[in-house]
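Re: the multi-chain job from yesterday

Posting the exact lines I submitted so nobody has to dig through the queue logs.
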Amino acid sequence: MTVLSPEPVHGAPTGELVLSMRGIDKNFGAVQALTAIDLDIYSGEVVALVGDNGAGKSTLIKILAGVHPKDGGTITDGDRSVSINNPAESGALGIATVYQDLALCDNLDVVANLFLGHELGRGTINEVEMEKRSWELLRQLSARIPSVRIPVASLSGGQRQTVAIARSLIGEPRIVILDEPTAALGVAQTAEVLNLIERLRERGLAVVLISHNMADVQAVADRIVVLRLGRNNGEFKVADVSYEEIIAAITGASDNAVTRRAQARVDSADAETGVPAGAATDSALPEEERP
Amino acid sequence: MTTPTSTPPPAGPEGTAPPTETVRLSAVAADLQDERLIQQHGIGGAVRAFGRRVRSGDIGSLPVVIGLIVIWVAFSLLNPNFLSSTNLVNLTLQCAAVGTISVGIVLVLLLGEIDLSVGSVSGLSAAILAVSFVNLGWPLPVALLASLLAGLVIGLLYGFLYTRFGVPSFVITLAGLLGFLGLQLWVLGSTGSINLPFDSWIVQFAQQWFLPDWLSYVLVVLTALAYAAQLFVTANRRAAAGLSAVPAGSIAVRSVFLLLVLAVPTWYLNQTRGVGASFVLFLALVVLMNFFLTRTRWGRSVYAVGGNVEAARRSGINVTRVYVSVFVLTSTFAALGGILAAGRLAAANQGSGGGDTNLNAIAAAVIGGASLFGGRGSAFSALLGILVIQSISSGLTLLNLDSSIRYMITGAVLLLAVIVDSLSRRTRVSHGRA
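And the result, structure tokens for all chains:
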């Protein structure tokens, strides 16, 4: 089940290949942060980038966002090779990044934040048109913001995340990168943001989701790319992978608390029913940690 | 730049917005559909909404207006001459110079920065004006231009130092305070004081020119009409876009209110000398800066940088340009204030821009409601604040109180204003309106 070939694991991607990264290397001084990373991004698909702390997830998206230049490897957009040296070039490629800290101006209202740096109107700002489009955009995302004329400071965490994601759509991107969008949110607000991610996919956008929360990943992602110690460590289709398999790929070990408990559950179930041990869990584990 | 419109605007959460245009206009406005919104209708609703805003710390200019009324009542009880037309005309003339400097301070405070050197820069500009016009015999427009240019160059220097080396503006401008005071003394040379000729138009402008009565009323009416027209056009455009709009009755009430607020003081000032040209210039600058701050991309980016620099940078705003432009404007306004002060005094001397000029300009901006924490305030903060500062100064002078007392009281008022700012900030945070 673990696939390290350049080809995507699933036969029929929901959309076309938007961006393809091959053999990406990145080092910070003596530290090799990324080694030969491959990542394909398809339109209309949510790809989750998972891995432990220090696995290189943030470094990889910062290369896409133009924060860090890559040291090696290629990025291809369709059939042409591209380089992303600064955030502006990232934006020109249709990549929008929503960082974990959201980067909203608390003193400005929702409309001003949505259009910050891209205000409408010639000479003077066209507030009416901006407010109208803000409502259209928020309605399309089924976002529940009571008023767009209140300062962002008065919104809840989920609403702030919604504003940040909606803002990334103003530039009509092809790829939206979300860095830990649910990290600081409660149950209802997390559900709100996950709904929003589904709606981005329905719009045909390619979504790259970084998350530590496997429940969220399994809820919205179509494909999971696991990084471990700066290398690809497995690529899964969400439909046919278990929680234990993902954990095993992230930690690089088939023997850990999660798998042991899962095995114990299977064993006790076998003892009760007399059915042979569940093959799904065992056989799907990655064979060994890769170098 | 357009928002993605892959799907037609769907119905609102409650399905209250039918898709057809004709029906939608009659339905609830697009921005009032959320059932959690507390709806306010009519004048009673507007009053209640205002009360709720004040309680949650979004007090705006309310404390300063109340403070101004208290000060005026107190001083008129102590000395009936305080509210005389003659004294109020003097008050407006005193406001113009420091008020102009204060407009610049508001700008720099919006970024969460400070300029402590505005007093020295205004003094330097006065010195340059006097030396070039009187001693060197340059034509007056050239001398004025040279003074303003000095302010502009100083602002460029501050902007360069701030953005290139990241030195806190507090320290840069503290160095500027000393350095440009020294430059002012050097420019003035051994004489130390240079008188401007009384018949030069800059002195006439700052001291003697008043609007004819008819012109002052025409300006008042035109201002009120422009305000009404602007509200009316906005309301129409909002209604056409399916958004809630201010009803015509409310527009009329507001415009008449503005007309009275402008016409009554104008009439009162016209009882004696009238409305000074320099004060009109100051008012025009306030209105102009308010327009730039609220209606242009530059103004929006000033507020954004003051609110969250990193967010502004990531939105593609050229943060360096915003900082430099604001430092340049602040120093240029300081230079203009120095010119007005020199005109009013008909002289430039070693004390020009010294004493309390610096701190009065900063105090005025803060008292008027520009937050020291950045991102909050308006150009009108300078107007309201300088009225408070000059009222105190004028009232205490009428009471024959020493400048020692005046400094102490002005200091106390500034402290009070900063405490109000901090308290309302804390209340805003706890009410989610930061």
